[in-house]
Amino acid sequence: METYDALLASITRDSGPTRTILDPATGEAVGEAPVHTVENLEAAISAAEAAQPAWAALGHEARSEALLKAADAIDRSAEELANLLSREQGKPLNGPNARFEVGACSAWLRAAATTELEPQTVADDGETFAQVHYRPIGVIGAIGPWNWPMMITIWQIGPALRMGNAVVVKPSEYTPLSVLALAQVINQELPAGLLTVVSGDREVGARMAEHPAIGKIMFTGSTTTGKAIIKSSADSIKRLTLELGGNDAGIVLPDADPTAIAEGLFWGAFINTGQTCAALKRLYVHEDIYDDVCEALTAIAEVMPMGVGLDERNVLGPLQNKAQFDIVTRLVDSAKDSGARVLIGGNPNPDQPGYFYPTTLVADIDNENPLVAEEQFGPVLPIIRYSTVDEAITKANALEVGLGASVWSSDVSAAREVAARIEAGTVWINKHGAVDPRVPFGGIKQSGYGLEFGVEGLKAVAVPQVING
């Protein structure tokens, strides 16, 4: 275990190309992140190519042991990692935020290490014997976002390493320190060169997508960037896992208990201050209980403290960057201009330091309003009234994205029937965004393709080989 200062010093630079990382809650400097170049990327890929064959040759058991030790290392440095994450990303230490994210890192790494993937016998009739095995791809490129920088990096690298690959990681320019620190801790238990973070700009990411030595790209981020990666990767026919933008719908059926579901609805929408791909971003509520749901949600929102992440009292933080703050401001302003009713929030304090946007609930809003039709990715939830379930399903399915969705009801069977009609990769019942390392996760439509987590996630970072005979 390193102290916070020692961990930060190990990943920052005093000279050479650097980027000053600022705390989005205070504007204070967190540290100097290295600005790596394409030349640094080439060196990382060469090191990965050199380290990967020996790592693959160790076999599943030895690799899993190393990853379990790496998970223990994360736990030993958990508080230092959480403090850095809070300062850089802005999320509070408490609630489903910084400490939660670091804990999820070690938990997901252990899950990747211990999930079994046995050869599958597909024919054994006395004449033909055929088995499907899964072999390493080689070098995998992982490009991550700024909202859950540590956890999503683990989602990418844990299964990839378990299956015998080497990994080169390109973090978001907004949150490179968190990923550099996480890799620094994990690399205490891994062979040199196997896992490298290249903290570069878009040029580095673009080169990763086209590089002939990288056999697969794993990307979490916007649909626009995902499309660019698809085009760049085409010449080398890379395998891709793309978890892209979402605008998740929730449907509250008329038999739901507004008070009972209010807190679940709130955290489904406002986890990580709404900066989550699979967060609840538009809520459809039946007219019979519409006012009651609005009232219950407002009561929850009123008591959730927002502020600087290192203050132990807070559970909501700032938006991570000004660009996102401006998007949220534009969308809420458009809703207000249209005549929608703001139940709470919608009025950021211009004199407050940091990118804080207050917790905001917007009612009586049209389904075509930009706040509903576009992904806000912040602490705002539009609540849309509906009359029939068919109407709600039609509206929920109207967009070109399909990452997650949810149905809320006192009748689970009825909720499952509605869920089956929703166009989304995952539909939760009476919860939203509850990912599980055992359960496959991925989007449909323009929310991407490929699965993560569980056995399917391991298969996705390997190449199938059929041995027939």
UniProtKB/TrEMBL annotation:
InterPro entries: Ald_DH/histidinol_DH, Ald_DH_C, Ald_DH_CS_CYS, Ald_DH_CS_GLU, Ald_DH_N, Aldehyde_DH_dom, LUC3-like
Keywords: Oxidoreductase
Entry-linked SUPFAM superfamilies: ALDH-like (SSF53720)
Ranges for domain Aldehyde dehydrogenase: 17-462
Location of the active site: E243
Keyword Aminoacyl-tRNA synthetase: no
One function term, GO molecular function aspect: oxidoreductase activity, acting on the aldehyde or oxo group of donors, NAD or NADP as acceptor
Keyword Electron transport set for record: no
Family: Belongs to the aldehyde dehydrogenase family.
Name by which UniProt lists this protein: Aldehyde dehydrogenase family protein
Source taxonomy: Bacteria, Bacillati, Actinomycetota, Actinomycetes, Micrococcales
